[in-house]
Design goal:
The chain is an alpha/beta fold. The chain has a single domain, classed as 3-Layer(aba) Sandwich (Rossmann fold), CATH 3.40.50.1820. It has 11 helices and 8 strands. It has an 8-stranded mixed beta sheet with strand order 1-2-4-3-5-6-7-8, sandwiched between helices.
């Protein structure tokens, strides 16, 4: 009720993407089929969008010890120099730890493979993608702890992977953007500090709002983020969704942003129900003196980063994030 007619307002490229989505197998946005079927549909639907794109000098699948068991990690090395640093065991380059989106319920290393390859190429540094355990099998705060654990591992032993553990960053989309910021705050408060996290690239994340203007006006079958869909994801993420609003590692606005928060690139989609989360985070950063860039991409919806084959905004968002990253790291 009272929703904006999003499909009449999105730009022509976004409309073409949605038409292509309709041709692909399954509907990962339909929460009524249950999370197991959604996962199958999500993987099938993303397969088309991950094809092609940059070729890495080397890609390595590995595991990192985490608080709940081994965590799969995929390392992307965009250049021969980066791959050579890994082979030599020298921590020569900074790196980006990437947490994928999917509402904490969907997604894996393959569904976000093209995004990670593009980001690695544009930033010119290795990317380490984290295959954290999904909900409902793993409940909050498991995913936060695992993403933080991968960064902590690289901080201590990154040289073996050609990574300078003193110069790490987090990046992520949707739930992954949330996890990148949450992991930074978790490392700061629970693991002795996060000074080695030098930058955050946060694409259309949820950062803690329980209600907002954008949530009231936007969201529907086209993005799977209507109010009932949102309740579905939160119900799987936590045993008691109410605890999410009380925890500083879910409701991230409960944290003190005046200390220990690295520069943030905050990207939002114009017709995304989570748009106001990004706006609020940008306002908090402004108020607390955190260097940041807040960018709203016009005419697109949530999860637009996947569509680099057809959508200029997706390529621009990755390029702008990589540019912000390079500026902050002095590359």
């Amino acid at each position: 009720m009272n929703k904006i007619d999003v499909l009449s307002k999105i730009n022509p490229q976004m409309k073409a993407v949605l038409a292509k989505e309709d041709e692909l197998a399954g509907d990962a946005n339909d929460t009524s089929v249950g999370f197991e079927q959604m996962r199958e549909n999500y993987v099938a639907g993303r397969a088309h969008w991950t094809e092609g794109g940059p070729v890495m000098a080397e890609t390595v699948d590995a595991e990192v010890d985490g608080p709940h068991g081994p965590v799969p990690v995929r390392f992307y090395y965009p250049t021969e120099d980066a791959a050579a640093a890994r082979a030599a065991g020298k921590g020569a380059l900074p790196a980006i730890v990437y947490a994928h989106g999917g509402g904490f319920v969907l997604g894996n290393l393959d569904t976000h493979d093209r995004i990670c390859r593009i980001l690695a190429e544009r930033a010119g540094v290795p990317v380490a993608a984290v295959d954290y355990r999904l909900s409902p099998e793993a409940k909050f705060p498991s995913a936060v702890e695992e993403v933080a654990a991968v960064a902590a591992y690289l901080h201590e032993r990154g040289a073996a992977w050609g990574v300078d553990g003193e110069r790490l960053a987090f990046a992520g989309d949707s739930g992954g953007a949330h996890l990148g910021l949450a992991a930074t705050l978790y490392l700061r408060e629970e693991q002795g500090g996060a000074d080695f996290v030098k930058c955050l690239l946060l694409y259309y994340g949820w950062f803690g709002l329980a209600d907002s203007s954008s949530m009231r006006l936007l969201g529907g079958p086209w993005d799977g983020l209507a109010e009932e869909d949102w309740r579905f994801y939160m119900g799987l993420y936590a045993n008691d969704p109410a605890e999410l609003q009380a925890s500083p590692y879910a409701n991230l606005f409960l944290n003190d942003f005046s200390r220990g928060v690295p520069p943030c690139y905050i990207a939002a989609a114009e017709y995304d129900p989570l748009r106001d989360d990004s706006a609020t985070l940008a306002a908090v950063c402004e108020n607390c003196g955190v260097p940041h860039r807040h960018e709203v991409f016009e005419g697109v919806i949530h999860a637009f980063l996947h569509y680099t084959k057809m959508l200029d905004a997706a390529n621009d968002a990755l390029e702008h994030g990589a540019t912000f990253y390079r500026e902050q790291l002095g590359l």
